[in-house]
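Researcher: Here's a chain I'd like modeled. Treat it as a single chain, no partners, no ligands.
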Amino acid sequence: MKTRISNLQLTLLTANFITASTLLVMPQAYLDLSLQNTWFVPFLWFLLTTLLITTAFVGWNKIETLDFQSDETRSSRTGQKLLAILMILFLMFILIRDLRAFTDFTGTALLELTPQPVIIFTSLICLLYLVWLGFEVIARFNDIYFSLLFIIILFLPLLLLNEIDMAKLLPPLQINAVPSILQTTFVGLAWVGELVIIFLFVGNVQPKSDVRRSVIWGVGLAVIFIFILLGSIISVLGSTLARYTVYPSYILVRQINITDFLDRLDLLVVSFWIPAIFSKMALTFYGIHRSFNMLFGTDTKIFLVPLALIIGFLSMMMFGNNISHFYFSIYVWSTLGLLLEILIVAVFMWIVRKERLAQSRDG
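Model: Modeled as a single isolated chain. Structure tokens:
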């Protein structure tokens, strides 16, 4: 039976894929570059990603279907295999990086005495279970936890009202800050551009005509999410302190206190944030699994367990310590990730064009 998701679910998947691990790893790097002006950068990401999505979906509504798991798709098999290879490489990097980021955060902030391999392979067992259940289950899981997390983030400024100091946002957007804002935009663009994973699932969305609008709405939700969190970090902690803090997002939520009896609400926020991160990693893992099936023309789950073992070992071996992981996330991925995303968009546009020509010729 063919899996189907709604446009709303696509919107929530897109928003969560952009925000879940980005706000765990990257705020310190953004604040280090742009200081009190960092809150402005998400709006530049929105403009650039909207342009990217609009370009990628040129001619989309002129084709009947584009499902990489269906024989109805008549476009070039070479293009599909090339897309699968690029997606495997792209998503493997993302999953290895995110799994290590989650492991380092958990080992540092939550489970200090738990060995790293135990956290990694326990996490992979949970991911395997989610991926084995299928795409629709991942989408429903994401609907619940991202929606709850988004609601909490919307109320975050209100919860932190007694800690906010608006003077820490000054001076805003001076002309000499333009180079640092542009640099931050470039560093974060590859993370926001990870939404190109949705190209694997556009054939599962109904109605097809609203896919582009749904993705743009997802980017908009992500921008609101990031804007509120970065603005709160700056106005509560201050950019000078936050730039030297490893996990400023976590430190921020620890500042929430409502009377003397409710001063550990950070545990409530983290209890929704961690499932949101798992939702992103599960979707990434499922994308790798689907890409392998596209590459070999199969529909099997035989790749899942070997892939989980490979990803677990690579997440431990690729990064010798937290510093090497941070260096990869900031300096390497900003260029490597963006290059892969541009190639994926170009191949997807080629496939759409081939499919449109094939369908018009047959019609």
